[in-house]
């Protein structure tokens, strides 16, 4: 295939996506990344949207083989923030000029419908801020209640579009059920984000291509493609981490295929490569998600090993990110960073 002609195509099929993911020539890879950056500029502009994360609980009822939060990990010190603590941190994030709050936890049923609704409502009373929930699979009626309380977005990664691969590391969950949740969330009006992990054991380029195409099929508002990183004290602690270059190629192809979806330069990518966030932003990403979970909690949210910036002051992280973003000619957005699909519908 001619790389230049391929990159000009409006729509890529599965074989073409696999071909691009398999590029090994450095010049061709650079052409792919440059094209992704161009598509990002056309559809998303030069603003980078910051999402402030609060990891408010590291308890989890699931037992996924790769995750440090899995319930069988007895070595992990557990914590839960109180609803009022979460609200207080959210207001500090807003005061930093960040207008999306990501409320994230393991699948922790300790926080019932009303507690989460209280947190959402309390945060929304103070500012015009978007709230993203990342709480795993919850009851469909809870999703409805939280939407009414003011939640705007839901992040729930499908992790892999291959049902057999999904079953290999989820003891209690099924891919078709995860996809039902994604469909329902979209139906009731959430801006929905999903995505995969790159470098899972036995994963193929065809699997990654199917992940990208699944994100296109579901017309997702946000799609995250981050490398797999093994976590200590899990069955997969000795597995090989995902590849940085393949992650960047995946992000780039995803940008070309998905056009206007928000794509983050993930913390996992920055964990494997010191310059990972910048490289991700140059490969089509337009979102960064700094962690504002306060100490002593943030050190205990050990979903994988050696998480980037975990010991840094969140205020320093905000300033550092701004300098990095501006160093490549981009600027930090002062908006909520809603879905471009939502904005186009309004227009």
From TrEMBL:
<dbReference type="GO" id="GO:0051539">
    <property type="term" value="F:4 iron, 4 sulfur cluster binding"/>
</dbReference>
<dbReference type="InterPro" id="IPR007197">
    <property type="entry name" value="rSAM"/>
</dbReference>
<keyword id="KW-0411">Iron-sulfur</keyword>
<dbReference type="InterPro" id="IPR034422">
    <property type="entry name" value="HydE/PylB-like"/>
</dbReference>
<dbReference type="InterPro" id="IPR006638">
    <property type="entry name" value="Elp3/MiaA/NifB-like_rSAM"/>
</dbReference>
<dbReference type="InterPro" id="IPR013785">
    <property type="entry name" value="Aldolase_TIM"/>
</dbReference>
<dbReference type="InterPro" id="IPR010722">
    <property type="entry name" value="BATS_dom"/>
</dbReference>
<keyword id="KW-0479">Metal-binding</keyword>
<feature type="binding site">
    <location>
        <position position="67"/>
    </location>
    <ligand>
        <name>[4Fe-4S] cluster</name>
    </ligand>
</feature>
<dbReference type="GO" id="GO:0046872">
    <property type="term" value="F:metal ion binding"/>
</dbReference>
<feature type="binding site">
    <location>
        <position position="178"/>
    </location>
    <ligand>
        <name>S-adenosyl-L-methionine</name>
    </ligand>
</feature>
<dbReference type="GO" id="GO:0042364">
    <property type="term" value="P:water-soluble vitamin biosynthetic process"/>
</dbReference>
<dbReference type="InterPro" id="IPR024021">
    <property type="entry name" value="FeFe-hyd_HydE_rSAM"/>
</dbReference>
<feature type="binding site">
    <location>
        <position position="64"/>
    </location>
    <ligand>
        <name>[4Fe-4S] cluster</name>
    </ligand>
</feature>
<dbReference type="GO" id="GO:0016740">
    <property type="term" value="F:transferase activity"/>
</dbReference>
<dbReference type="GO" id="GO:0044272">
    <property type="term" value="P:sulfur compound biosynthetic process"/>
</dbReference>
<feature type="domain" description="Radical SAM core">
    <location>
        <begin position="46"/>
        <end position="268"/>
    </location>
</feature>
<dbReference type="InterPro" id="IPR058240">
    <property type="entry name" value="rSAM_sf"/>
</dbReference>
<feature type="binding site">
    <location>
        <position position="60"/>
    </location>
    <ligand>
        <name>[4Fe-4S] cluster</name>
    </ligand>
</feature>
<protein>
    <submittedName>
        <fullName>Radical SAM domain protein</fullName>
    </submittedName>
</protein>
<dbReference type="Pfam" id="PF04055">
    <property type="entry name" value="Radical_SAM"/>
</dbReference>
<keyword id="KW-0949">S-adenosyl-L-methionine</keyword>
<keyword id="KW-0004">4Fe-4S</keyword>
<feature type="binding site">
    <location>
        <position position="159"/>
    </location>
    <ligand>
        <name>S-adenosyl-L-methionine</name>
    </ligand>
</feature>
<feature type="binding site">
    <location>
        <position position="134"/>
    </location>
    <ligand>
        <name>(3R)-3-methyl-D-ornithine</name>
    </ligand>
</feature>
<keyword id="KW-0408">Iron</keyword>
